[in-house]
Amino acid sequence: MDSRDLGEGILLHPFEERDADELFALVERSRAHLAPWMPWLPLHATREDSLQFIRAAREQLDAGTSAQLAVVERGRIVGVCSLYAIDRAAGVCRCGYWLAPDAQGRGLVARAVGSLLAHAFGDLGLRRVELRAAPDNVRSRRVAERLGFAFERTLRAAESFPDGPRDQIQYALDADAWRAARSCDR
Prior knowledge:
Layout: E1 4-7, E2 10-14, H1 20-34, H2 47-63, E3 66-73, E4 76-87, E5 92-99, H3 108-123, E6 128-133, H4 138-146, E7 150-161, E8 164-174, H5 175-185
Parallel strand pairs: 5-6
Antiparallel strand pairs: 1-2, 2-3, 3-4, 4-5, 6-8, 7-8
């Protein structure tokens, strides 16, 4: 997947090794905000961890199993948006996202995820995208619902955190519903 220009100075682009310092600094600045929602946060403790994440993301992108992309606003990384666990044979994948607190509330995630959905349902030919959020992560859940994802179920103890397992809300969007919503928007 190549870089995508979302307009108004916003890009989605594949991570490059040179992004490690910027990504690490962003995670550090956002750590307190992300801690309740992101179980991977303790694994991003050093710049080297960010570099390893980027290397793994590049390998997965090349293999077609994941597209973890930097959300860039006016030249600086402000978050991550991804399609992962891509299974083309089954026609499904999962979607995830996070933004720095100072980048929220301007529709960046909705635009980024919308672009990834176009890729998933168009270029990749998938039939279903799943998304999970913590029950009390209201902002993330609102984004999912605004994009047309439908609530499916609560997954009990589905996410492992250092303090123990936590529930997740599962949403899904299928290609037909996505296409129908897009045709109504025109």
